[in-house]
TrEMBL record:
Gene3D superfamilies named in the record: Tetratricopeptide repeat domain (1.25.40.10)
Lineage summary: Bacteria, Pseudomonadati, Bacteroidota, Flavobacteriia, Flavobacteriales
Alphabetic keyword roster: TPR repeat
TPR repeats: 219-252
SMART domains per record: TPR
PANTHER family the record matches: CELL DIVISION CYCLE 16,23,27, CELL DIVISION CYCLE PROTEIN 27 HOMOLOG
InterPro entries: TPR-like_helical_dom_sf, TPR_rpt
UniProt source species: Dokdonia donghaensis DSW-1
Domain of life: Bacteria
Name of the featured protein: Uncharacterized protein
Length: 436
C-alpha cells in the first residue's frame, strides 16, 4: 500500500517509519493526552439514545400511516431519522429522512421553504450537491426565511466551487452577532487560507453558542474549532475542545476520533489510537473507521490486517446507498496502485463533475499521477489547483508531480512549506515529504 490521505477532521492519517520517529512527536514532553480525561467516554454507548429515537420514529410513522398528508408528522419523522444518522452514521436513516422530506415538500402549502432547505441539507450530506442546489434554489424562489436560504445557498455554492457567488451571498447576511454567519465566514476564510481569521470567527461563534446554551450548537463549534486549532499547531487547545464536546455528548464519535488523531499523529501512540477507534466503532456504522485502522495497522507493520481492512472499507463504501459519498477516499486508494489507476481517473472525473472544486481537480491530477501520466497531472494542477487551494494535501500532490517531472525550482519552496505540516498531514506523508 502507498501513501494516502484519510478524511479525518481536515482529513489526515499517516504512517511513521522508525527513521522519522523524532519527527512524530514521541518525546515525553509532547504527551498531552491523559486516558483519565476520556476513558469514561470510551465506555459510554449511544444505544439508549438510539432506542429513544427509534421509539420517536415509530410514533411519528404511525401517525403518517393514518394520514399520509400530515406534513408535520412527516417532518418530525424526517428530523428523527436525521438525528439517528447523526448518532450512528446509518445511511439508511439518511435515506428515510430524504423520502419523508420529499413528501413534506411536495404537500406543503405553508412553510414549503423549510422542507426544501432541509432536503437540500440532506443532499449535501449525501454529496449530491447539484440536487442540493436545485432544492435550495426552489426554497429561495418560494420565499419564507430568506436569510436561512441564503446560508444554505452559500454552503452549496462553496461545495460546487462557485466562490464568487458564495461570497456575494455571505455579504448579504453580514452580521457579526449571528452564529450562522460567523461559522460560514470562518469557512470562507479557511478557503482563502486565512487560518488566524478562521479561528477568530469560530471563537466568536463559540461565545454566541455558549451564551445560547444550546447543546448542539456548542458541540458543533467545539469540535470544528478543535480541528482548526490542530491545523494551527495548537494541539492542547484542540484536545481541550474535543473534551468539552464530550462533556456535553459522551458518545460523540467526532470528538473521540479527534483525540485518536492526536494520540496517533502528535504523540506517536498508534495502539492508543486503535483503542479509541475500536471504542467508537461499537456505536457507528460509518465505513471510514476501517480505513483509518488500516493505516494504523500498516504503521505497525501488520500489512495483512491493513490490507483486509482496506478491502472491507472498499466493499462497504461502494454500497449503492452511499452513492458518491466516499468517492474522494476511493480515488486516493485506487490512485495508489498502477493497476487501479484507470479506475481512479474515472472516479475522479465523476468527482469533478459532481463537485468542480480545486480539491476535486487535485484528485484528478493525483489519479493521472498514479497512472504515470505526469504531464497530464501537471496540466490539471496548473489550471485548476495551484494557487486555488491552500490545502496541504493538494500541495503535497503537486509536489509529487514536480518531483516526477524534475521541476526542482518549483519543488524546493513547496517542500519547505510542507515540512511544517507534520501534524496535519501525519507521519507517513511527512516521511514522503522528506524524500521529495
Amino acid at each position: 500500500m502507498k501513501t494516502r490521505q484519510l478524511p479525518h477532521t481536515k482529513y489526515l492519517i499517516a504512517l511513521c517509519t522508525s527513521i522519522f520517529l523524532t519527527s512524530c512527536h514521541s518525546h515525553k514532553e509532547d504527551i498531552l493526552t491523559d486516558q483519565n480525561d476520556y476513558n469514561a467516554y470510551l465506555n459510554t454507548s449511544n444505544s439508549k439514545v438510539i432506542s429513544g429515537l427509534n421509539d420517536q420514529v415509530a410514533f411519528w410513522n404511525s401517525r403518517i400511516k393514518k394520514d399520509s398528508s400530515q406534513i408535520i408528522d412527516l417532518s418530525k419523522s424526517a428530523g428523527t431519522y436525521t438525528a439517528l444518522f447523526n448518532q450512528n452514521a446509518d445511511i439508511e436513516m439518511l435515506k428515510k429522512a430524504e423520502q419523508n422530506l420529499h413528501k413534506a415538500a411536495q404537500k406543503a402549502a405553508i412553510g414549503k421553504d423549510n422542507y426544501l432547505r432541509a432536503l437540500a441539507q440532506n443532499y449535501i450530506t449525501q454529496h449530491r450537491f447539484k440536487e442540493a442546489k436545485t432544492m435550495i434554489d426552489s426554497a429561495a424562489q418560494v420565499g419564507g426565511e430568506i436569510s436561512a436560504s441564503n446560508f444554505v445557498l452559500f454552503d452549496v455554492a462553496m461545495e460546487l466551487g462557485n466562490y464568487k457567488e458564495a461570497k456575494t451571498l455571505l455579504d448579504k447576511e453580514a452580521d457579526f452577532s449571528n452564529y450562522n454567519y460567523l461559522i460560514r465566514l470562518a469557512k470562507w476564510e479557511d478557503y482563502s487560507g486565512n487560518l488566524d481569521a478562521t479561528i477568530q470567527h469560530m471563537e466568536n461563534a463559540m461565545h454566541i453558542a455558549d451564551r445560547s446554551n444550546v447543546a448542539n450548537l456548542k458541540i458543533w463549534v467545539y469540535t470544528n474549532l478543535a480541528d482548526y486549532y490542530g491545523h494551527a499547531g495548537r494541539i492542547q487547545d484542540s484536545y481541550n475542545h474535543y473534551l468539552k464536546a464530550l462533556a456535553l455528548d459522551p458518545s460523540n464519535a467526532y470528538a473521540k476520533k479527534g483525540i485518536a488523531w492526536i494520540t496517533y499523529s502528535y504523540e506517536n501512540n498508534p495502539n492508543e489510537a486503535l483503542r479509541i477507534i475500536e471504542a467508537i466503532e461499537k456505536d457507528t456504522k460509518s465505513p471510514d473507521y476501517a480505513l483509518l485502522k488500516s493505516e494504523i495497522y500498516e504503521y505497525l507493520n501488520n500489512n495483512k490486517t491493513a490490507e483486509d481492512l482496506e478491502k472491507e472499507f472498499i466493499n462497504r463504501a461502494t454500497a449503492t446507498n452511499y452513492g458518491d459519498m466516499y468517492g474522494a477516499y476511493l480515488v486516493e486508494l485506487y490512485a495508489s496502485q498502477p493497476e487501479t489507476a484507470d479506475k481512479a481517473i474515472t472516479l475522479a472525473k465523476k468527482e469533478v463533475n459532481n463537485r468542480p472544486t480545486p480539491m476535486s481537480y487535485d484528485l484528478l491530477a493525483h489519479a493521472y499521477y498514479g497512472k504515470g501520466d505526469y504531464a497530464q497531472a501537471l496540466n490539471i494542477a496548473q489550471e485548476h489547483v495551484i494557487g486555488k487551494t491552500y490545502e496541504p494535501m493538494a500541495q503535497f500532490h503537486t509536489a509529487q508531480i514536480y518531483k516526477a517531472l524534475e521541476m526542482q525550482k518549483e519543488l524546493t519552496p513547496l517542500k519547505e512549506e510542507l515540512l511544517e505540516t507534520s501534524y496535519e498531514l501525519g507521519p507517513i506523508t511527512y516521511a514522503e515529504i522528506i524524500k521529495l
